[in-house]
Amino acid sequence: MGRFSWSRLVDVTGFNKGDYIMADNQQMWKDLGMNLEMHDMLCEVLPGAIGDVFMSQENRPAAMDYFDMVLADVHGLRPAELVEFRKNGGKVFGTFCAYVPDEVIFAAGGIATGLCAGSQFWVPGGERYLPANTCPLIKAMLGARFDKTCPFYRLADVYIGETTCDGKKKAYEILGTDVPLHVMDLPQMKREKDYLKWADEIKDLIAVVEKTTGNKVTEENLAENIKKINVKRAALERLYKLRRNECVPISGTDTLLISQIAYYDDPERFATMVNKLCDELEQRVADGVSIAEGKKRILITGTPMAIPNWKLHNLVETSGGVVVCEETCTGTRYFENQVDESGKTMDEMIQNIANRYMGINCACFTPNTARADDVIRLAKDSKADGVIDVNLMFCQTYDIEGRSLEERLKAEGIPFLGLETDYTDNDAQQLKTRIGAFIEMLG
Amino acid sequence: MAKKYIGIDIGSTASKVCILEEGKENVYEVLPTGWNSKITAGIIREELEKRYGSLDDADVVATGYGRISVEYADKVITEITCHGRGGFEMIGRDCTIIDIGGQDTKYINVVNGKPVDFLMNDKCAAGTGKFIEVMANRLGLTIEELFELAEVGKPIAISSLCTVFAESEVINYMGEGRSREDLAAGVIDSVALKVATLVQRKELQDTVIITGGFSNNEFFASLLSKKLGKTATAMPDGRYAGAYGAALLAKEKNR
């Protein structure tokens, strides 16, 4: 990883690693009570994976440097900041889902961090607690916690779960035996009373974060943090609009990484860095620079892709395709629609937050036809040649929804490929054949 | 000497070659893939060079799961596209192709001569050639014998979705002393059922053809037709559909 001048970037990007300088990750991990021996195995494979997936791409934007750096030291940079933050009494909240409103956590002076679970490395650990036929994301979630091989899982003082699927609900019961955990009860329908109920759930969350942090959520700090998170979402929106240009200025693989980092980076710094990248991409578009000349434009929809799950993007983009949009939780579902900033009272602001999050179209809702509307709209806006619906194995709701989605897309004349996979590499060749055939079909 | 267009389909079990030459009959060859598809690709090259001299004047398209092993190929195209092209040419009109290969079963829908939709089994080996091979071995039969016995047997239901568990299921029946004919019939019946189940969520056109290793078997075709509720036509040269499609695409690429 010698081509980056990390120390300069750390300086420029304002990372405060406090007591732990770069080489001291091991000490920090030890202090966090991690299983170092096992964690080393994970650290060993990461540089290779980064090289294969990211560094092998040609003509990457220079401003990817920041995100490369965050990734290369994924268990060092941000965790060290969180260590510092906690040392001064700050509280960290670990989240798993795009429905959890970061606004209220930051308003109470806490930090929200996504607890990603995107590696096969954590799956066997999860299978000690869960049936093998559980979605790999949920298994990895438990493996990362109980194996003690992820600093973020160690650093979160309270986990915030949500009832987005049966597997997660049951897994939270198990996680809750090991760490303080609050579950938000997400409605499964979108009637008026459900919007009100979600606002109520957000009030409960506020009580939890207030009690944990000892700080009050006020009209002032909530308004301020609504704006702050809106700025972050706006930056991602800008990125997604730029990437779908006729000249594709950035790969889908790089964009996915940014969407993944969005979950755990400092929101203000992240927005600044995304906007800086967007300035460069705007120039690329103006100059007609495309990284995907002659490639087929693919929209990916389906289940979330947590770090370090880049499997599908890598396969698509090494098979003659380019990913121009993701309608996933690590994509448009994370940032589309803003929280209305006009709320004045606490109740108004909370309802506005609830309305924004209830606008996300997850397969856990019934009915969920708005998701197909989203996919069709995004496929048209991004001039996608085809849509790939990719679902994690054993994710029943998305799997079942795939069929109606296919019918809707067929009616629109948009080519569709449905895939099911997990975090292992054993189906890479089969997937390559399917994706390759799909791209040939589009040609 | 006229230009040759060569399609090479390195399947998981068998490798197929098709040679097209202006004014000559299509040439089809088949050999076992063996354990190393690079070696197989090398054997094919030697054989072709022995027969035609240098391959400099030939256009080669490789397909099949071992397609990347054919280092001398001018182009690599997936087996979906090649089977679609070859199957369409063999039957001469738009069709739905059901290809039963060594390690996977494919559904390919061909409209206006081009594949527009496809599906491959991805859960397990049930409903593939591998399943039949494993069961034939277990019953001490060749694949041809298995089909012959199946025709006269009364099928025993084999319901396991997994080839390994299905083998255990067959072993149980063997322990009960069931006849080989009935077991053979059960095996073939279960493959037909699994293939029909796989494709049932997709559109079937009026013309359905079978390609792949068992494509010349009329008994299997009639069994599958019953399960599909639609006539599935056995193609005598169906196992070469991928190689033939690859050769045709090599030719078209040149135009």
Task: Describe, in short, the structure shown.
Chain A has 443 residues and is α/β, with parallel strands linked by helices. Chain A contains 20 helices and eight strands. Chain A starts with 5 loop residues before the first helix and ends with a helix.
Describe the structure in your own words.
The complex is a heterodimer of chains A (443) and B (255). Chain A is of the alpha/beta class. Chain A has one domain. Helix content of chain A is 53%, strand content 10%. Chain A contains 20 helices and 8 strands. Chain A has helices at 6-13, 25-31, 36-55, 65-72, 77-87, 102-107, 123-127, 136-146, 151-155, 166-175, 192-213, 219-243, 252-261, 267-287, 311-317, 332-335, 346-358, 369-381, 396-411, 428-442; strands at 92-95, 111-114, 158-162, 181-184, 296-302, 321-327, 386-392, 416-421. In chain A, the strands form 2 sheets. Chain A has a 4-stranded parallel beta sheet with strand order 2-1-3-4, with helices on both faces. In chain A, strands 6-5-7-8 form a 4-stranded parallel beta sheet, with helices on both faces. The longest helix of chain A is centred in the middle third of the chain and has 25 residues, at 219-243. The radius of gyration of chain A is 21 Å and the shape is globular. The two termini of chain A are 37 Å apart. The model of chain A is unreliable at 1-6 (pLDDT under 50). The radius of gyration of chain B is 19 Å and the shape is globular. Chain B has helices spanning 37-52, 79-91, 129-138, 143-152, 163-175, 180-199, 218-228, 241-254, and strands at residues 4-10, 14-21, 27-32, 58-63, 75-76, 95-100, 105-111, 114-120, 208-212, 232-234. In chain B, the strands form 2 sheets. A 5-stranded mixed beta sheet of chain B has the order 3-2-1-4-5. Chain B has a 5-stranded mixed beta sheet with strand order 8-7-6-9-10, sandwiched between helices. With 255 residues, chain B is α/β, with parallel strands linked by helices. Chain B starts with a strand and ends with a helix. In chain B, strand 1 and strand 2 (14-21) form a beta hairpin. Chain B has 8 helices and 10 strands. Chain B has a domain at 4-80 and 241-254: 2-Layer Sandwich (Nucleotidyltransferase, domain 5), CATH 3.30.420. Chains A and B meet through helix 20 of A and helix 2 and strand 8 of B.
